[in-house]
Amino acid sequence: xxxxxxxxxxxxxxxxxxxxxxxxxxxxxxxxxxxxxxxxxxxxxxxxxxxxxxxxxxxxxxxxxxxxxxxxxxxxxxxxxxxxxxxxxxxxxxxxxxxxxxxxxxxxxxxxxxxxxxxxxxxxxxxxxxxxxxxxxxxxxxxxxxxxxxxxxxxxxxxxxxxxxxxxxxxxxxxxxxxxxxxxxxxxxxxxxxxxxxxxxxxxxxxxxxxxxxxxxxxxxxxxxxxxxxxxxxxxxxxxx
Length: 241
Hints:
With 241 residues, the protein is of the alpha/beta class. It is 41% helix and 27% strand. The chain has 6 helices and 11 strands.
């Protein structure tokens, strides 16, 4: 493990090689910093690259750590009145109102208003608000995804046979041989570019059910900066400086 020094600050980094890499790049993530080199490159090339971008690396690392904290805050949504719900780069205010009614109801006019039955215990209120808000997010995300799919379908020349919004614990999206695309609803918590990249990633699998060179070439033709978004999702950080 090598280290990068700037004044009194010291941060570790590693140098790795990739058969898929066509250029030298730096990946900055909460878990660490990597210099990725094409296979056959000299290690000194990686050292020269990161040393030449030292100030940028330190600046972006600070942003990544801030982003990681925000990421954890986003995943841990607080379903209480006054909270702000992340949705594709926006933050939507949440208002919870307990009223005399038989069943809960959600309204949206720029603010998410969840009206629940009066007299419910606090934990039951939170559970009902969570159910309503997540249901709304999934519905909105489906509508947004269908619009993106329609645009990409014209570029790729094929459409999926179905779309499902799910709560996967290990993947952000998937596309099976049945040509049905699955999206993790938590993608809605991130900025739109990341959301659209995942849809493009899965749409390209309608042409190539693998991660071959032809597949990544198609992805790059749709999302030229796909590596940045791919690394962001993998490491919950930023890509190359």
